[in-house]
Amino acid sequence: MAEYLLETQDLGISFGGLKAVQHANIKIRKGQIYGMVGPNGAGKTTIFNMLTGVYLPTTGTFFLDGEELKGKTQEQINHKGIARTFQNIRLFSNMSVIRNVMVGLHNQPQYKCGFLTSMFRLPKHFKVEKAMRQHARDILKVFGLDEERNNLACNLPYGQQRKLEIARALATNPKLLLLDEPAAGMNPQETADLVRIVKKIRDEFDLTVLLIEHDMKFVSTICEELTVLNFGTVLIQGDTATCLNDPEVIKAYIGG
Amino acid sequence: MAETMTKKSRFQNGKWKNYISYAVILAFLIILIVINLTKGLGFSDKSTLPRIAFSCMLAVSLNLVVGFLGELSLGHAGFMCVGAYLGCYTANVLRGAGGMPELLVIVISMLVAGIVAAIFGFIIGLPALRLKGDYLAIATLAFGEIVRCIFKNLPFFGGAMGMSTKLYDGNTLFIIAFVTLLFVVFCCQNLINSKHGRAVVAIRDNEIAAKAMGINVTYYKLLIFMIAAFFAGMAGVLYGATIGTIRQETFSYNYSIEILVMVVLGGMGSINGSLIAAAVITWLNITLQSQLSGALAPVKSIVYALILIVIVIFSNAPAMKGFRESINPRNWKRKSPEDAGKIKNDAAQWDRIPTKIHMDDPLSVDTRTTYADSPVPPDVVVKNRDEFYVKPEKPADTAKAADAAASADGKEEK
Q1: CATH no. for A4-81+174-254
Q2: Closest approach of A118 to chain B, Cα-based (Å)
């Protein structure tokens, strides 16, 4: 077992001449809630995309639990234990809420079931379907979405859609959960709710959370450590209070 | 509100829909058998029925690709062509060897046809499924034509003259055809209503999210493509048994597009719709061909095209929405006068409410004629209209309400 759950070494990517991210060294301990903040265009989502295999880093590499994941496909990285949500919600909008979560459960080894088994409706199919449905409901209950399970995902209010996205990511049984602006567009009540939920799932599901957020109140409430990015480079790293009070950070955010 | 929405959603996902197609096909088949035994079906009926059956098979299998996977394929007749030639060739060989019951021969030849077509599906799908939308359509279109031209130039399969195979007895063929159709519908429906079907629909809805959820997108795209090709190959054998001589010009891109028309008219992503549309279009085609013969023959295409245009307008044009809803069985129970009046009143008020519903689809407010597809049932809107307006509230009250809500949430969790 490695000391850090996620460790990036000199991670960087450039698109043509644009160096979107340079020399990112992020180390996250198991069980931490780790924040990544920075002004727009600082490269936060780009780092997420590298960690989930959407982009191939041009320099450096990253390790999950000591295993190098650079160069693996998105599916493989998900199987290894990194799940994510998206900045602009990407639910399967024409499917019901529970089916969204069941798609997340698709690759769990206990629900393995060949397509011919399903096609000819062998007994295993029914067993797997029933177990998946129950598992999905258990996950939805954590988010208070069990009542809405048969509604279409696109009919949910915005805050619940965000929660559903987290629930769906959680269904893939990740070790590391990447949340891209989970509190964007939520009212203060929903944000407070979200703080509780993130802490709860961290404890119950034995998770480590890396999140991007612009709501500083949210960040200071929930994150134990921070990485502040600006123009693709790391400005400062360390515990939350120190980072947010750093003059460099304040300068990057509000100018001056 | 939640309850109504749940009910509606259950109705939409209603399981009865999965069984109704089996019931209808079975009932149809039994009635036909009874008619055939008592009065005897006409000669033309006996050739029409298997055609309807294999058209339905083609439409249902193409619907897997177009409707559920969301990829446009224009080479479906190509897979049917492969299946027809290889399957019927196998059947000829098996018959030549002799000693095998005829039923076994057709089952084996269908399996061979399906497997070969699926292999072709794999070969074409592996490079082509990296393409998207129009480009995939062009690639598959080219594939269909290439396959046809290859068989045209292979003297082994009869070349341009076509390959002759056994013309089946009309009395048994339609039974075989409909039983095969039942099998295909069974397989497709079960596949779609399983975890694999969910993964496929997820890929259609949002491929990026599906990948991030660990769904193996390439695997599922290829799988669905191959399964569709498999069933198209089986349909090819039935085609050979119906016609007696397999000619390559049948499988031109015109035929691929005709299958696509069936899928689009029946509704993409609806297996029952594909079945109905395929049956109607095939019947229409054959009837027009037999009725408008001789001097009227050139008119046939025009009449056929006109009927298609009318069907498309009635089933899809926004201007016909009112008409469609008036004939929709789901709305029949709202027919009582006071209900109609209520809906009208609600519609009038709806425009004045600063609505927060369907913000991403502002036009839906204007075009909606009933609330059947609205997420909020009308009576809720009317009774609690004030809730939709911003009410000035004392800050203390808000804080209290928030606390109450928070504690309620806390209880739920415990």
Answers
A1: 3.40.50.300
A2: 6
pLDDT in tens, A90-127: 999 999 999 999 999 999 999 999 999 999 999 999 99
Nearest residue of chain A to residue B398 (CA atoms):
A189
Mind listing the pLDDT tens digit for each residue in B361-377? 444 343 434 344 444 44
Task: State the average pLDDT for chain B.
Answer: 80
Q: What is the mean pLDDT of residues B237-256?
A: 92
pLDDT at B4 over 90: no
CB-based contact B78:B148 (threshold 8 Å)? yes
CA A49, distance to chain mean position in Å, is 11
Mutate one of A119, A162, A203 to test the B interface: name it (highest B CB count within 10 A): A119
The verdict on a CB contact (< 8 Å) between A169 and B210 is no
Give the model confidence (pLDDT) of B104-139 as tens digits.
999 999 999 999 999 999 999 999 988 888 899 999
The average pLDDT across B381-407 equals 49
Is B4 at the interface with chain A, CB within 8 A?
no
- Residue A152: its chain B contacts at CB < 8 A? 9
Q: What is the spatial distance between Cα A48 and Cα A44, in angstroms, rounded to a whole number?
A: 7
As for the ipTM of the complex, it is 0.92
Q: With an 8 Å Cβ cutoff, are A102 and B214 in contact? A: no
Phi, psi of B131 (to 5 degrees): -85, 160
Spans in chain A with pLDDT lower than 70: 1, 256
Contact B412 A119 (CB under 8 A): no
User: Which residues between 76 and 95 in chain A have a beta carbon less than 8 angstroms from any beta carbon of chain B?
Assistant: 78-79, 83-84, 86, 90-95
Q: Where are the alpha helices (DSSP H) in B39-169?
A: 43-63, 76-97, 102-128, 133-152
- Select the more confidently predicted residue: B336 or A170: A170
Dihedral-angle region of residue A176 (phi above 0 means left; psi in -120 to 50 means alpha; beta otherwise): beta
The verdict on a CB contact (< 8 Å) between B215 and A115 is no
Q: Is B13 on the interface with A (CB under 8 A)?
A: yes
Query: Could you confirm whether domain B15-277 is CATH 1.10.357?
Result: no
- Asked whether the predicted pLDDT for residue B15 surpasses 80, the reply is no
Question: Where do you find CATH 1.10.3470 in chain B?
Answer: 15-277
CA–CA separation, A220 and B341 (whole Å): 55
Helix, strand, coil percent content, chain B, rounded in steps of 5: 80, 0, 20
Chain A, 1 to 30: residues with Cβ < 8 Å from chain B are: none
Ordered by start, the domain boundaries in chain A are: 4-81+174-254, 93-157
pLDDT, residue B378, reads: 44
pLDDT of residue B382: 41
